[in-house]
Write the structure tokens for this entry.
Amino acid sequence: MTVWDELTGQDEAIEVVRAAAEGSGAASGGPANRGMTHSWLITGPPGSGRSNLAYAFATALLSPGTPEGDLATRRQVDARTHPDLAVLSTERVIISIDEVRSLVASSQFSPSVGRYRVMVIEDADRMTERTSNVLLKALEEPPERTVWILCAPSEADLLPTIRSRVRTVRLRVPSVDDVAELIQRRDGVDAEAAERAARHAQSHIGMAHRLATNEEARRRREQTLQLALGIRSVSDAVLAAATLLEIAGADAKAITEERDAEEREHALRSLGVEPGGTIPPALRGQLRQLEEDQKRRATRSLRDGIDRILVDLLSLHRDVMMLQLGTDSELVNRELRAELDALSTHTTPAATLAAMDAVATARERIDGNVAPALALEAMLTTILRGTTARKGSDL
């Protein structure tokens, strides 16, 4: 089994970085051999496997003598404990300038056990312009044996000056079949459950894994869609918006609560405080910093949870549009066929398109820090207006 076996649906991208990793190991070729360069950017839509490819590439570069990834190196990279690997990933809305400065400083160190020192930045699109300029200086004059691997949804999310200094590898949306096969093989679920999770996740690998292995996540998704289908009045829309926020909050809490407890326990243990023991005043500042980081992560998790709900609602109206256009071969929510048929006859394609636009607008507003409750209420009211207008014309 090689480090590339855990990836799916990205054969062209894998071939590019695999060839670079193989060339980088040439005795006399150096880092320019076979397409190897010091700065990489992996782009692709959410769930396409950007970070998975980044860490597979890092493993190949750090493995001694083989680009297939030896087992010991793979374990260290998976645990983020390899001495020549530095990772910057944030649970917050933005990456801070101090985090990037610290990473840039560590990039100047020579490799301790491997051929390279590998620096990975997940969600590089979360850097502000000022923060990006700190990184730019490191990309302009990198040490000979340092490799940067950035991940972002698209090249447009980064400054043009950074884009000009990286080699871009573009990922595509993997097929439902590819994701289902990966989930079935990796998570040990049956073929039917894997296909349903991959379809409902719209080929988002991480979400497909969660839907396949977490019954509560599946229940919350079903509740979201049934709630949207049951709106009949403006008051229903307002109540539904509040309920959707509760669902997103419960989803975010489920993701972060267990991790927060583990982090606090680990922090107390590392500080020498027994469980349930009194925290010395001198150590309380460190725990306050941890709590502040966790609060910021909770904020991002809530926003991510709301966005997942909006993506699910978008899939619902997309299915309605497919039925209105006379095709049902690619329905995401196949299990709701009766409800989808009923909705498709009560609205026009123009109203369905307006509903999809309303969902997209809500995503933009929330991303722009509009209060989520207001954005959701406006979205659901707009969708309701299109539905009731068609019903009124049918009378």
